[in-house]
User: Fold this.
Amino acid sequence: MNFVEINNISKSYGSHKALLETSFSVKKGELFGVIGPDGAGKTTLFRILTTLLLADSGSARISEYDIFKDYKKIRQIVGYMPGRFSLYQDLTVEENLAFFATIFGTTIKENYELIKDIYVQIEPFKDRQAGKLSGGMKQKLALSCALIHKPEILILDEPTTGVDAVSRKEFWDLLRKFKNMGITIIVSTPYMDEASLCDRVSLMQEGKIMQINTPDNIINNYKPILFEIHSNNMHDLLIKLRKYHNNSNVFLFGQTVHYSSINEINKDDLKMYLKNNGHANVEINVCTPTIEDCFLWLMNQNN
Amino acid sequence: MKKFIGFVKKEYYHIIRDPRTLFVLIAMPIAQILLFGYVITNEIKNASIGILDHSNDEITKQISSKILSSGYFKLDASINSEQEIHEAFRKGKIKEVIVFEPHFSEKLKKEGTAKIQIIADASDPNIANLLTNYTEAIIRNYSNSITTQNTQISLITPEVRMLYNSELKGAYLFVPGIIAMLLMLISALMTSISITREKELGTMEVLLASPLNPFTVIAGKVTPYLMLSFIDACLILLTGYFVFNVPVNGSIILLLAECLLFIFMALSLGILISTATKSQQAAMLISLVALMLPTILLSGFIFPVENMPLILQYLCKIMPPKYFINIVRTIMLKGGNLSTLWSDTLILAGMSIFFILVSVRKYKIRLE
Assistant:
């Protein structure tokens, strides 16, 4: 049986539709990623799951509890970390942790084993006020606070946004660890490169889920040939490539341009076209797509 | 219960980690009471007056010296002609001029009557009224003393006694008012701000997602401020007693219990405000405008309720401070006890229960 089941959840704010008939399910002990840019509806979805918002239609359950009827039960078993840092800035690290332990009716001591791995990292600062911690430390403290009552499921809203690369990696290592302890985790992120760290991901865009699959399968499902193109004038290259074919996907990717199209593209024809358009020194290679390529491709198809 | 204590502890940290606010909360009552005590006073002392004596005889001199030795007045400029009167008033140097008619004592002896004109600067009507009343009283006193010497006609003389505040001290009036005002301000304002701050900072989101029930949150918010406001109430009473000699004639325990009741009422009002507002600024504005102004104007603190238009009198009836100020005055000055105050106390208690019920009901268990 799936641990989390979401069926056709919709939510709108006035005329703006934040979520459109969203459905997915998460298995027990799974690390499930919700990937999408700002405004995709990730926060709204998480707030509905954590019983903070009511959906306009649809239903959902976590474990055997309905998110509407059994909201009190859900609040007991969920560890939630909102997108904005939501601890008390004027309380110290230890006071924050003790407070969240108390309101869940437990103590730091009781569940110390669970948070030990994170807590040793923030312990040197335990007398520092939370507002004075670095971004990465803040997120680790927030994660400890969300874990302190030994939740069955963690719901983390963009925990790595605004955090440096090293801390991001450490944070994901921790999530892996908790997953291995049997805690189900639903995590959202705007960073496409983090998708490969999840068991399964759902790609979200404008309130709709475009695809749900394992990261590998999402890449395998990518049909067109992807070209990696480099030229001296990158800006002009973008313009020329956009004119080459209708229904193609062109975007800057680091030092190169990624190009794909639903039409059959011949590499030599493409090179010829670019040469005729003032790009003598082009380098064209076929490359394997990343999640970002898949996301942008799907996005383009939907539009 | 453990959750409640944990919550109170957290609130306590918030309060002591913000020493500036704490200082304001402790220093404000003392500063306010000293300000009201020394600046806003209805008593007259050493008002500057002028005397225009057309007669300048023994009796006018006697009357003048009586007036000037009363302690209420001091002679500022001796005025020599009618024209100078206007000049002096316009310059704002003097508040009142006393004019004796020519041949004052001759007329008094021959005709049995003589005239004194009192001219007052009524740009401040209250002061003008007070000054003329004082002057009239002194002159009446003098005229009584000379008539009883000369004639045997017995006059009806009313003898006035001012009960409960025989010296008509202003402090007796404003100490109860300031208690009401400050308790209202601190309790309602601080709780409404501290709850809306959690909404603004996003910590409310985590609290809502936790199994804390609304009642624990509200009780946990209220308790620290209840204690803080109670300390303030004691500070005001002590300052009133030691600096302005305002006595507590009734039971001090009853007085403190009534203070607690009023604080509780104001706190529940603060919570009610915070359930209806999203930002600290909105909460502050509502607390100040919707609570402070009625507390000062519509409670009988400064202006007597009985003199207001009927519609405002009805409005006063729904203002909690009106009942509280009456209770405090009765206990402090008249030494009243619960047998005379039970109805006011019941009304306050009823209002508290009403506000707390509405706020628990209105407290949102989800984000809006």
